[in-house]
Specification:
By secondary structure, this protein is an alpha+beta fold. 31% of the residues lie in helices and 24% in strands. The relative contact order is 0.13. The N terminus and C terminus are likely disordered.
Amino acid sequence: MALPPSTEGSSPAPRTRLIAEELLLYDKDGQSLLDDHALRILIALHQETLTAQEISQRYKIPIAPCYRRIRRLLSLDLISEAGYVTEGRRRPARLYKSEVDRFTITYGSGEMTLHLMLRNGTAATAVVALRDDLTQARTAAPAPHGSGPGPSA
């Protein structure tokens, strides 16, 4: 992707930073928190308390990424520990539960809005807008199939 040429002495206006966006969408290393695995974990734990092993097996999340997402979600207080399971195990396994009461994501006009309502009454909203050049690139019509040069013999 080509960057637009810079003009001397002018720079684009900085986007205001959203605290909720920093806390809920990205961790301190800039990695996305609400990827497919994290959303599956949040949905799973909203329905019942589960161990990491149970989440991994039922929701087809590899165990190492499952534990990484659990640590991130715990650090943001989006999930919490709910006790231990000891039956049929050599050592106790932690149970986790969701602290999210309601969770909605809406998308429109090039913006994604994330709204979380936690069980303790805390609400957080983040609005993420796509840059115009990305929106145009994603909505551009694809080239017609078969319009390129054919195979050579």
